[in-house]
Design goal:
This protein has a 4-stranded antiparallel β-sheet. Strand 2 and strand 3 form a beta hairpin. It is of the alpha+beta class and 113 residues long. The chain is 37% helix and 33% strand. The protein has a single domain, classed as Alpha-Beta Plaits (2-Layer Sandwich), CATH 3.30.70.100. The chain contains 4 helices and 4 strands.
Length: 113
């Protein structure tokens, strides 16, 4: 999935809202890249999007084809370790939400003329 080719509903979104402490930026960036690469290998993975503002608030959304796929990702050993490091070092707070996407639509100014 890319922003130009979103999955066809229904699917699931795991929404991770967080505040980054600014600690260990290099290690954080490397771990984030490793987790994204690992997630892409997991059955049921559909895609990923993220954004962060200058105050450290960020939202990361991963997309999955089932709740079973989400649970498998949550319990993956490397992902568990990365989450622990996040709690211990990188995040001052976070919220995880899991939602089923029933419908989606988009507007693209480039394609509307």
């Amino acid at each position: 999935m890319t922003r130009d080719h979103p999955p066809t509903p229904p699917y699931y979104a795991v929404i991770f809202s967080n505040t980054h402490t600014g600690a260990d930026e290099t290690d954080y960036a490397q771990t984030a890249a490793q987790m994204e690469a690992l997630a892409k290998t997991m059955p049921g993975y559909l895609g990923f999007e993220s954004a962060r503002n200058e105050d450290g608030f960020g939202i990361a959304v991963s997309y999955w084809d089932s709740e079973e796929a989400i649970a498998n990702w949550k319990h993956h050993a490397e992902h568990r370790e990365a989450r622990k490091r996040g709690r211990d070092h990188w995040y001052s707070d976070y919220i995880v939400r899991v939602a089923k996407v029933e419908r989606a639509y988009r507007m693209n100014a480039k394609s509307t003329g």
